[in-house]
Amino acid sequence: MTTHFSKSIKSTLLALSWMAVFSCKPGDFGTTNINPNASETPVTAGLLTNVINQSARGFTITATEPDLYVQYIANSQYPEASLYSTVNADFGGYYSGPLYDLQNIINYNTNTATKASVASYGSNNNQIAIARILKAYFFQVVTDRWGDVPYSEALKGFPTPKYDTQQAIYADLFKELKEASAQFDGGTTVQGDILFGGDATKWKKFANSLRMVLALRLSKVDPTTGKSEFASALADAAGSIATNSDNAAFTYLNNVTFRSPWAAAYDGRDDFGVSDVFVNALQSTSDPRLPSLVAKISSGKYLGIPYGLKRDLLISWTGQNPQYSHPGSPIVQADSKGYILSAAQLLLSRAEAAQRGWTSENATTLYNSAIRASFEQWGVYDATSYAAYIASSGVSLASGNALQKIGTQKWIALYPNGYEAWAEWRRTGYPALTPTPYAVNVSKQIPRRYGYPTSEQTLNKANYDAAVARLSGGDTHDARVWWDTK
């Protein structure tokens, strides 16, 4: 894995060099602008490597603010974000970064002038299929953060792209994922794929799994469509992520450049600890995952930071408690894994769908299998402790409150993927999280979305105004995205 990753990073640098050459017009200055040592062929393998690397960082699965919203972590020094001070956030990095690279992969493999040359990095259809699946994944993250966003006119050179409704975006994401899965042609394996090694079967499982995640997002706003799309993905012959061997998990490298962002967060700084909310939830059910997910302090105890304290109270608490629990060793190691989609998450999604009557599967069987998959993912599975855990009244579906327990288990299983956990919490309301009493936003509630980039108010005003007009409550983080109905 390390060798493959390193080669792919080098390819990324070659791709960037090629793009710089391509942006010039050699004919203007004879051969002056031609570098005889630079590649004249786009290195799509490098672009793909770069995108997958970005998917495992702040763009999707490692960002502290949503981890604060779902109360996985708490601030130790500067509590502004956990008091909900952030309103607007910039989505430009998604469009100029991973989405731009993915569109270029599609363009290079489609354009008659380049498709033959880039086929050396994998068949054209296979490269396009992977790029379309990843585009759908990134657009899902973007629309779930902001709601209506540029989509149909994005990445096409429009200086002021319109904002598509989230409903329309979701409809197209379902289409894209289905068509992309069907596009794999059995040709040459795609290079630069540091997630699945070019394995088309695993990419199809990833696409079907993402379809299930998207389908469940519609559980409140459009359950009819949600049920249909979920059943379609579940019935697909390629299958979905159901065992840890199929996890979409990114392995970081034990070096400064490509280490886990969680390892980097504690390199010379100590701004966050695990929240008391998360620690207490695991302790209340004697959860065997606790030692892997949360580190003990030197006394041998777990001590979470009280969630949502304002600065004076926080400084007072940390002054009295200079040690507090950090995320566990499997998370903060430089070469740990970042989970994009896991078996535990998908099995819990299937359990919820079954509980809602969307499928004929057995909710309890899937729920218990999900917990086992999570235990195995974090290296804590033991038959005796597992049996005791799933039989306990606070966990067993037999004791009632099935949807609440499924939602709570998904919250635990997703840790520390704050973006996905935040989306699931907004949709289901589980677990029941209490906002900080020191909130500075108008509603005093946990944010429901990010406000649009402030630059859009001038650079893309007409389309921005149209999107804001569709928001109940305006462009605030208290407004709700389409699927997040009350």
TrEMBL record:
PROSITE patterns: PROKAR_LIPOPROTEIN (PS51257)
Pfam families (alphabetical): SusD-like_2
Keywords for the protein's UniProt record, in alphabetical order: Lipoprotein
Stored SUPFAM superfamilies: TPR-like
Key word Kinase present: no
Superkingdom in the source lineage: Bacteria
InterPro entries in the record: SusD-like_2 (IPR041662), TPR-like_helical_dom_sf (IPR011990)
Record protein name field: SusD/RagB family nutrient-binding outer membrane lipoprotein
Source species of the chain: Spirosoma rhododendri
